[in-house]
Specification:
Arc Repressor Mutant, subunit A; alpha/beta; six-stranded mixed beta sheet; homodimer; 13 helices; 381 residues
Chain lengths: 381, 381
């Protein structure tokens, strides 16, 4: 039986820490300017050649390669200026307890430099990387700097959350559930009355489970990602696991996109390796859909064909086939259970959706499929 | 000043009505079979040649063209069978008080007909149109048949909703707000303590307004659509306007996509003309963004160029330009205020985003832009 474990992290949001780091950065620059030196930032290098898979902690981590950005360097000066502008903006946001979207941060800092025709930023594609640079330099999440990502996803189950002055139970909001905000740094968990969290890819499936009263019967918290999990949802999952000891079980479609959603929740994305320790949940497990489910539950009639060209055909692999082969090479899928599923998908050339379980009956997923698999711990690592 | 008006509709969801209509349909077919006749359905024709704009009610409506679908006709038999299958499925759903997604409805009804190799449905693209046929035939919403659409969007403000046994105030859910379910037929409004509803295109802007305490200060309900408004959100807006007398004000980006979002909320879409009377809210008004805002608020520096080729250039109009010209021909945009804005967009070749207002200050939209425009009723029809 799945049970809540002992917490491994404590509620740790501290705006003062972020402010201190920013002030330190500013003072350092100021000191160099006063000393007549050429001020610079050291920024951990982005990209694949500066990430590795930490086998012990089982997360993608950033290496220690740095690149130095000088003020007095024609190739660096623009980015140097942009970095200071965004750092100052973040300081203002955090001091005032305000949040801004990435887009707002871009617009707020875009202006023409007096006496020139030069704009500080021409496009959001200039400000976003600067924000990522700051995350890497300071070792804080964008959300801790009060810059919010796009929000998506909702939560339903017997937990009580405090957000500012409000306190509410997410199982008492009708069929709607609680919409997960872009930033969950500031929320507190007042009461957790569930045994585990079930992370569900599609809203339709989450709503099915809510309608079948699965959260109550199985003492589960439902977290609907509505596609790829937003950063807010990933951070919420991380916090529920590490601060509250909730086992995390992921339930997606049985296709390369669904498995990628699982992969991102579990390990983080390679582009954002520096966030893994705060956003990823390597202990997450996977309940389905798997290729074995197709045979076990007689779903052959409701599979769909994989898209693209198989590896053994001319021009292949492309599409779904190519993505599956990529996934076979992820370090966290290098185990016999996952290799088996991914190989079967390639062999059979099919995918299977969560909602295909409705072919049995609407109740099937809530009354048989999930309770059985979870009770028997038929879960992939 | 905007104030709540007198309600024009009453809470009207009645599952028995849907069941009666389905039973009537079934009895009619059965009677014809028993009499040795060739049973048929009369289905209002889909497509542009069977819709018109009702100038009085100011909604798109379905015409009275019918097409007849016979059982004993090789070209009709498959669809006849599919229509009966789905009708029977809907009867079961509504009787049992269960809901299914369109995808579940497809999977649930897909099977191989015994003794043949024929599947009842090969693809969801076969079942969706059958569901639309039933909506048109019976004059009920898909949601009233317990078939739910994709859900998206959330709500924040001082209203109290009852959904089953739960009763909650959507301003007491922290920064998250209430996630709008796929179906809002069954919810009831217990208490409405706002003067109007502000429908907002982007989550980032809705969250800005929530952070600035706009809903409380301005006695407004915020409805975030997160892009194109889902059917659940459109139905919610309709019900808040007609059952609760709330004025509806829409706030989108100043670009063809944002104006289309407004258009869909206001008038419904041409494809789904038969739903207009239950999903559309023709009395909705538009606060921004407009082309005039660019000059009035000095936002020239934060506009973006329209995409595509202008009408006066070779190969044009394409992209944004083409969509704007299409929108100029919508009957509900055939008024001087909208023609002016759309013409200005074509002339200047620019678009303006909601979040560009952050260039003034984060508070600007909540403290100046919206309160001023709404108080002065600077709204487009």
């Amino acid at each position: 039986m799945l049970k809540r474990e002992r917490p491994k992290e404590r509620f740790g949001y501290d705006p003062q820490k972020v402010l201190r780091k920013l002030e330190e950065l500013g003072r350092e620059i100021l000191k160099e300017v006063r000393q007549g030196k050429n001020p610079y930032f050291d920024i951990p290098t982005r990209g694949l050649n500066n990430v590795y898979f930490d086998e012990v902690k089982r997360v993608i981590r950033m290496g220690d390669k740095l690149s130095r950005r000088y003020f007095l360097n024609v190739a660096h000066a623009r980015k140097f200026m942009q970095t200071l502008l965004i750092a100052a903006y973040v300081k203002r946001l955090v001091s005032e307890g305000k949040h801004a979207s990435l887009r707002e941060a871009y617009y707020a800092n875009k202006h023409t430099i007096p006496g020139t025709k030069e704009n500080t930023f021409e496009d959001q594609s200039e400000s976003d990387p600067i924000i990522e640079d700051l995350e890497r330099m300071l070792g804080v999440l964008r959300e801790e700097m009060h810059l919010t990502a796009d929000r998506r996803g909702y939560v339903y189950g017997d937990i009580t959350i405090r957000d500012g002055e409000d306190e509410f139970n997410t199982s008492k909001l009708g069929m709607g559930g609680w919409a997960v905000p872009g930033t969950v740094e500031h929320i507190q968990f007042v009461d957790i009355n569930v045994d585990y969290a079930l992370v569900v890819e599609t809203a339709a499936m989450a709503d099915r489970l809510i309608e079948e009263k699965f959260p109550k019967k199985e003492r589960a918290l439902i977290i609907a990602t509505q596609g790829q999990a937003s950063r807010g949802v990933r951070r919420l999952i991380h916090r529920l696991h590490y601060e509250e000891g909730l086992p995390i079980i992921v339930f997606t479609d049985g296709d390369p996109y669904g498995w990628y959603i699982y992969s991102t929740i579990k390990q983080g994305s390679i582009n954002l390796a520096y966030l893994s320790e705060k956003l990823a949940t390597p202990e997450a497990k996977f309940v389905g859909m798997t290729m074995d489910d197709i045979k076990k539950y007689g779903l052959e009639n409701v599979t769909e064909k994989l898209k693209g060209i198989p590896p053994n055909k001319k021009g292949g692999p492309t599409g779904d086939y190519k993505r599956i082969i990529e996934e076979m090479n992820y370090p966290w899928f290098k185990n016999k259970e996952w290799q088996r599923q991914l190989k079967l998908a390639l062999e059979w050339g099919v995918r299977i959706e969560q909602q295909a379980l409705a072919n049995k009956s609407l109740e099937f997923v809530a009354k048989k499929y999930l309770p059985e698999k979870i009770a028997n711990e038929e879960l992939l690592p």
